[in-house]
Amino acid sequence: MARDYDVIVIGAGHNALVSAAYLAAAGYRVGVFERRASPGGAVSTAEIIPGYRFDLGGSAHILIRLTPIVEELGLEEHGLEYLELDPLFFAPFPDGDHLFIHRDPDRTAQELEARFPGEGDAYEGFLREWLPFARMVKEAFLSSPSPFQLGRHFAWRSPMRDRWKEALPQILAPYGEVVDRHFREEKVKAPLTWMAAQSGPPPSEPLSAPFLLWHPLYHEGGVARPRGGSGALSLALVRKIRAHGGEVHLGAPVTRILAEGERAVGVEVAVPDLAFRPPTDPGEGPFGWPQEEGWRAPSSAEVEAAPRERYTARAVLSGAHAGITLGRLLPEALRPAGAGGLRSGNGFGAILRLALDGPVRYAAHPGDEARTALQLVCRDRAQIHGAYADYLRREPARDPPIVAMSFSAVDDTLAPPGHEVLWLWAQYYPYELSPELGGAAGWEAIAEREADRILDAFEVYAPGTRDRVVGRLFQHPVWLERELALPRGNVMHLEMTLDQMFALRPMLGMSGYRSHLKGLYLTGASTHPGGGIMGASGRNAARVLLKDLSRRRV
Asked: Distance of CA 203 to CAs 37, 392, 457, Å?
């Protein structure tokens, strides 16, 4: 039977594009279908304010630097240029003090020792003790989480095999407790804890220590930014796919996965009559598609009214949220029983993106080094706990800790000369607010107030920022669900807790990127190893699918 493609890919998020690029490079006919009018999903960039380019999702490229994806796919040949950030992190404090974490661990330890005697030595000891474990976890992330693979990484070939008895109690502890075992100074503990909190679980969460123990790898892979915005990674992947004959269809939401018996055989796609019809070619420039309108998705009404087209394939690979794939796109009779139990939680973060007419200046360190680094604006660990307590009451954080990013310090394509883009990621923010605040619908009423509250919290550290604002975009959890297809506003798709990690992500029996349905495969943040700009899920899924295609299992 003639098929339209060998593999149909649902969604053009970065993991889906990574998979599609590997499959196309291997000679398979690939078709990618994306609901939005530009590719990348939560790894995309748009000119929201004239002259200012805003990322719409993930911004700091850390995890992907620990993988071979960029080199294996030759993405630099397709326009991807990474700009290194050093220092990696900057932490200001309200009393005017500050600290830096540099790419060079020795320099970092020396500066910590000079400012906080004993803490530099403690930092060196922490890196030395946990670097083998961090490397082991990284290797586990780069393969399917089968019992065999996990045993290979964590037992038989583990550099930790002689230390498990000593290390295991710390690995199983909350990361908020583990940091106390290594450091004494709160100004060292707070930024380390705040970085660990970026995956979602609070410092008190049992079994969460790996989010802290991953820290030594920041010095190995570094932190970088694609020139032109985070979406430049996605555009390079699209160019790679097209260079090998693959197709990327934009403004083309998949409405149903087609099945024959218990086998996925293709997809049904809506073809809305958009006023803005995206071009098929991203062009040769650094930014690709026109972005002024191109970031939006068709509305529900446009999709509902649109005619449908059907496409067939040997296999279907979905990069959409697992709950959408397994619980909405499949015919009801084929939906697995456990799909309704996947936990996306209640959101956890919000981001305020600002266009400024001048650079950010911190009172604690007005130099450009502070603007270059990821800025960990967290007074102390009590602030994190307080914000999480507000979240448990289903209220926005009254005093939010912030990760500030001003990548125009290293990339002059993001803002007009002398101007700045500033992005303030804050935690914790529930998707469904308390009944008093109106539930999820209540965000419409409080969004501007909460955006102002984040800016007020930042102003304490960088006075005068508010006066420089010329435009802004506030991405609260309901916005993230509506615009980026992130159910309940969770940027990690599913909560990053132990019961939804490794062989349990997205659920038992599907962690190897094969679903319960023959011919249907999964990738994206819903699958191992989870959220973040890493691409490991896309690479792992492609390897599984390539093996099955070559053996004619699909």
From this structure: 38, 14, 21
Question: Please, is 466 exposed, middle or buried when counting C-beta atoms within 10 Å of its C-beta (0-12, 13-18, 19+)?
Answer: middle
In the chain, CATH 3.50.50.60 covers: 5-59+229-342+498-550
- pLDDT over 80 at 140, yes or no: yes
User: Which amino acid, one-letter code, is at 363?
Assistant: A
Residue 287 has pLDDT above 70, yes or no: no
pLDDT tens readout for residues 303-352: 888 999 999 999 999 999 999 999 999 999 999 998 888 999 999 999 99
Is 191 exposed, middle or buried, given 0-12, 13-18 or 19+ CB atoms closer than 10 A?
buried
Q: Can you give the pLDDT at residue 297?
A: 77
**DSSP E strands, 348-476:** 349-356, 374-377, 402-405, 420-427, 469-475
> Taking the CB of residue 131, how many other CB atoms lie within 10 A of it?
18
pLDDT of 28 over the 70 cut: yes
pLDDT the model gives residue 164? 74
Q: How far apart are CA 410 and CA 9, in angstroms?
A: 34
Residue corresponding to tokens 């630097």? 65
Distance from C-alpha of 363 to C-alpha of 345, rounded to nearest angstrom: 37
- Looking at domain 5-59+229-342+498-550, its CATH superfamily turns out to be FAD/NAD(P)-binding domain (3.50.50.60)
Q: Any idea which residue has 């604002």 for tokens?
A: 469
Q: CA nearest 509: which of 208, 15, 147?
A: 147
Query: What average pLDDT is seen over the chain?
Result: 93
CATH of span 345-489: 3.90.660
Residue among 138, 226, 137, 69 nearest 542 (CA): 69
Count of CA atoms in the C-beta half-sphere (13 A) of 463: 4
How far is residue 523's CA from residue 16's CA, in Å, rounded to a whole number? 6
Please state, in angstroms and rounded to a whole number, the distance separating the CA atoms of residues 401 and 377: 6
Nearest partner of 206 among 240, 178, 241, judged by Cα: 178
Query: 279 vs 449, which has greater pLDDT?
Result: 449
Residue-level pLDDT at 154: 60
Residue 510 has what DSSP assignment?
-
In the chain, residues under CATH classification 3.90.660 are 345-489
Distance CA 142, CA 131 (A): 17
State the Cα–Cα distance between residues 544 and 395, nearest whole angstrom: 42
Q: How far apart, in Å, are the Cα atoms of 130 and each of 61, 125, 166, 222?
A: 22, 9, 12, 17
How much is the pLDDT for 33?
Answer: 97
- Among residues of the chain, what percentage have pLDDT more than 90? 84
pLDDT of residue 179: 98
pLDDT, residue 165, reads 74
Q: How many CB atoms lie within 10 A of CB 445?
A: 11
DSSP code at position 198 = G
